[in-house]
Amino acid sequence: MLVVVAFVNVAWSLDHFGILSTIPHERAFPDRPWFDGWSRWDAHWYRTIADDGYTYTPGQQSPVAFFPSYPLAMRALEWLFRDVLIAGIFITVACGFAVTWLFHRWCLRHLSAASARMAVLALLLYPYAYYLFGAAYGDALFVVAALGAFLLLEDDRPVLAGLVGVIATAGRPVGGAVVAGLTVVMLTRRGVLTGAAQAAGARVRGAVALGRLRIDPRRLRPKDLAVALSVLGLAGYCFYLWRRFDAPLAFVEQTGVPGWDQPPGPRTWFKAYFFEAMQLPQSPLNYVRLGSQAVFTVGALALVPAVIRRFGWGYGVYTLLVVGLPAVASKDFTGMGRYLLAAFPCYAVLGDWLAHVAWVRRLRVPLLAASAAALMLFISAFSRGYYLS
């Protein structure tokens, strides 16, 4: 239902508010607004990769900044939709449905049914959740691959978990968070990595104590190591860049080129650009865009201890890295709105609070309604060409 509402919102916004837009003159689908509104900004980079492959010009914006999972999927389905952008939109929609199902399934393993429902609502009504509804971006594919990998690992299928993890690590630069999270979840589930309290009274020969942690590598099975297969997506892309352009980390260099202007360094890490931007006169939407992403990022990081307590160290490590790495690399939190979709354990914590914490439960209707209203506003703005995340 939300997908239908989102598509209607896109078409209606373009038909009725076209004058209040920043849509480029060369539109992807000028006669089909329900598709055109989802084909903004990075969508055109993905189309270029799917149509023409990768190119790299040092010091200039180049397609190598974008990882290959999503454009490869677009290219693979072009035969079905006759256009790679339409293929990308349908990939996002399909992945959005899959994310909803997989996330609900994951929540039911760790939470009550009421908490699981609230967690799904918290995710789907998040103001930047439109990247799961149709936007031709790779975020939905990354999230579904990460969720699928963790669920497969919990089903004791580490080989399949590692292989699905390849899609995630070939989809986003922060794919290493999936590798680290899968590894720690595997170690704790196998009893290789335990807290000192758990190990008290169980002095096992061959176990090694590190502070409050106890490591017993003898509990590992050979197939458990298969979760390391997940790193092949990132490694494969780096190998391709090395062979093709002699620049295995070209995507890192791209962050600092003119137009993206996020070179690694203290001004980026400590958000000097963000504080400068918030002091400049600009449109109210830009204040909302930057401010909301900063607040959501800080909030997600603040939830990491709750994630660890509720779901364990593996999901805590994953959440910390999948939020923390892009937060450090972003000069002004731009992009964090959609990157936070991957922090699914945070939405599970919020869902648990919405279902069971008394004062939060009393506020859940206005909170979810306000979030839904912001989501509809952001969908409309995105479709009309405003850069939000």
Automatic annotation (TrEMBL):
<feature type="transmembrane region" description="Helical">
    <location>
        <begin position="160"/>
        <end position="186"/>
    </location>
</feature>
<dbReference type="GO" id="GO:0000009">
    <property type="term" value="F:alpha-1,6-mannosyltransferase activity"/>
</dbReference>
<keyword id="KW-1133">Transmembrane helix</keyword>
<dbReference type="InterPro" id="IPR007315">
    <property type="entry name" value="PIG-V/Gpi18"/>
</dbReference>
<feature type="transmembrane region" description="Helical">
    <location>
        <begin position="290"/>
        <end position="308"/>
    </location>
</feature>
<keyword id="KW-0328">Glycosyltransferase</keyword>
<feature type="transmembrane region" description="Helical">
    <location>
        <begin position="339"/>
        <end position="360"/>
    </location>
</feature>
<dbReference type="GO" id="GO:0004376">
    <property type="term" value="F:GPI mannosyltransferase activity"/>
</dbReference>
<comment type="pathway">
    <text>Glycolipid biosynthesis; glycosylphosphatidylinositol-anchor biosynthesis.</text>
</comment>
<keyword id="KW-0337">GPI-anchor biosynthesis</keyword>
<feature type="transmembrane region" description="Helical">
    <location>
        <begin position="84"/>
        <end position="103"/>
    </location>
</feature>
<keyword id="KW-0472">Membrane</keyword>
<feature type="transmembrane region" description="Helical">
    <location>
        <begin position="367"/>
        <end position="387"/>
    </location>
</feature>
<keyword id="KW-0812">Transmembrane</keyword>
<feature type="transmembrane region" description="Helical">
    <location>
        <begin position="225"/>
        <end position="242"/>
    </location>
</feature>
<feature type="transmembrane region" description="Helical">
    <location>
        <begin position="315"/>
        <end position="333"/>
    </location>
</feature>
<dbReference type="GO" id="GO:0031501">
    <property type="term" value="C:mannosyltransferase complex"/>
</dbReference>
<keyword id="KW-0256">Endoplasmic reticulum</keyword>
<dbReference type="GO" id="GO:0016020">
    <property type="term" value="C:membrane"/>
</dbReference>
<protein>
    <recommendedName>
        <fullName>Integral membrane protein</fullName>
    </recommendedName>
</protein>
<keyword id="KW-0808">Transferase</keyword>
<dbReference type="GO" id="GO:0006506">
    <property type="term" value="P:GPI anchor biosynthetic process"/>
</dbReference>
